[in-house]
């Protein structure tokens, strides 16, 4: 039997390829995904809250419409800065006119005030119905969620990224909610 680390590595490779193959589907379903993100925020959270998102990398869900819509509605939107390996993410205030700086791993973030989020929306490669997520393997979000144990969490994905079981290790943090273009899945009390 393979160890969990190898299982995760193989699943990452499979899901990265699947995401590349599903680019046309993602473009077609992106509008509904963004609607579900905004619906979730409206249903669960007050306007005064600070919501951390991510600026999409190539082949990730394009959530920029959600950022713009929620900003227009008065939410404070935060984007992460990826620090050196071993540290937690820092979240910077975002607004439409802000200049984004290149960060580690081709990420982009605003060089603005650092704020503490109350909700963190995470990218992922795969998820299961228990709220387990497979990320890129750097552990940044797991370290970040350990720093912010009381924040609400929601993973953002397309429905094709669901798997029966995500292999997990003791340091992997599960998510309260997964938002896809077809549904909002509540895996834990939210």
UniProtKB/TrEMBL annotation:
Gene Ontology biological process: folic acid-containing compound biosynthetic process; tetrahydrofolate interconversion
PANTHER family: 5-FORMYLTETRAHYDROFOLATE CYCLO-LIGASE (PTHR23407:SF1), ATPASE INHIBITOR/5-FORMYLTETRAHYDROFOLATE CYCLO-LIGASE (PTHR23407)
EC assignment: 6.3.3.2
UniProt: substrate binding residues: 60
Cofactor dependency: Mg(2+)
Organism: Commensalibacter melissae
Pfam family, one: 5-FTHF_cyc-lig
Catalysed reaction, written as an equation: (6S)-5-formyl-5,6,7,8-tetrahydrofolate + ATP = (6R)-5,10-methenyltetrahydrofolate + ADP + phosphate
Coiled coil spans: 1-35
Protein name per Swiss-Prot or TrEMBL: 5-formyltetrahydrofolate cyclo-ligase
Binding positions (ATP): 8-12, 133-141
Highest taxon listed in the record's lineage: Bacteria
Keyword ATP-binding attributed: yes
Similarity annotation: Belongs to the 5-formyltetrahydrofolate cyclo-ligase family.
NCBIfam families: MTHFS_bact
Enzyme class: ligase
Gene3D superfamilies the UniProt entry points to: NagB/RpiA/CoA transferase-like
Keywords linked to the UniProt accession: ATP-binding, Coiled coil, Ligase, Magnesium, Metal-binding, Nucleotide-binding
GO MF: 5-formyltetrahydrofolate cyclo-ligase activity; ATP binding; metal ion binding
InterPro entries (alphabetical): FTHF_cligase, FTHF_cligase-like_sf, NagB/RpiA_transferase-like
